[in-house]
TrEMBL record:
GO cellular component term, pick one: plasma membrane
Keyword Ribosomal protein: no
Name of protein: Branched-chain amino acid transport system ATP-binding protein
Biased composition (Polar residues): 284-299
Molecular functions (GO terms): ATP binding; ATP hydrolysis activity; L-isoleucine transmembrane transporter activity; L-phenylalanine transmembrane transporter activity; L-valine transmembrane transporter activity
Amino acid sequence: MTTTIPQQPTPAGAEPGGALLEARGVIMRFGGLTAVRNVDLTVNKGEIVGLIGPNGAGKTTFFNCLTGLYVPTEGTVSYQGTVLPPKPHLVTKAGVARTFQNIRLFANMTVLENVLVGRHTRTKEGLLSAIVRGPGYHRAEAQSRARAMELLEFTGLADKAEHLARNLPYGEQRKLEIARALASEPGLLLLDEPTAGMNPQETRATEELVFAIRDQGIAVLVIEHDMRFIFNLCDRVAVLVQGEKLVEGSSDVVQNDERVIAAYLGEPFDATSQDDTAARETPGTDQAEGTTSEQENDR
Ligand SMILES: Nc1ncnc2c1ncn2[C@@H]1O[C@H](COP(=O)(O)OP(=O)(O)O)[C@@H](O)[C@H]1O
Ligand SMILES: [Mg+2]
């Protein structure tokens, strides 16, 4: 895995500092169930922010509200000071990309093709150009392929570019989801359980990848159950319990907060423990859902 992505002119480009994403008073109700209760969350430029909490706490639902998959019952989500339209492709276009807790890849497409799909919001060539296949189309396609290959290098998947996505081991499928999300040239990347189903080595590699992504000026909001991963990585951590934000603060503050210990951790997180297994065994850890589905991205 390389640690640099050549800089791209990106509309979502970010200098460090300042608010990037601002969610205000987000409420999501499903009939009688309130899955997200009046949640405020800010992600600043250059930050890695963690979102933790037991299963069913509303973490994925909150992500869906941020990315236009759900229209929140109440509240607003702004990116760089502008309210995001509740349409996934427009949210991606605005500069917010995501991965899914249940991997969503095109299983029968190659690794490279999956990343190329992720670039569609950044390519200007339209349908007419694709039909005519003039010089503009060929130039844009070559640029897209070059960029997609850079991202595969960056995520350590370049040697698998021509493999079918469904033939990748599970951990590499999760990396491919990240590469595809990066292909939309985001300013903010949302990761929903990026290490679920990974072994400890893959998890550590993913940690490095997230740091490398942040070093490229891309802010990250990450949901995870692996507390070592969260507390190592995150500048700030928010804890959701039963749809409400219980606590928010630095890793140090959150891991020692009695309410967080009572509602989620069970016992104080032991950062000195070298035992990766213990670090992963937090309450409510989901079993990995290892299916690759042929679903449309962002829908
Ligand atoms: N589309 C939906 N329709 C009805 N209930 C939902 C829907 N999506 C999520 N929920 C419910 O919202 C709650 C929060 O779920 P979720 O956001 O997946 O939690 P988490 O990601 O924290 O595990 C759960 O009770 C879940 O059953
Ligand atoms: Mg979830």
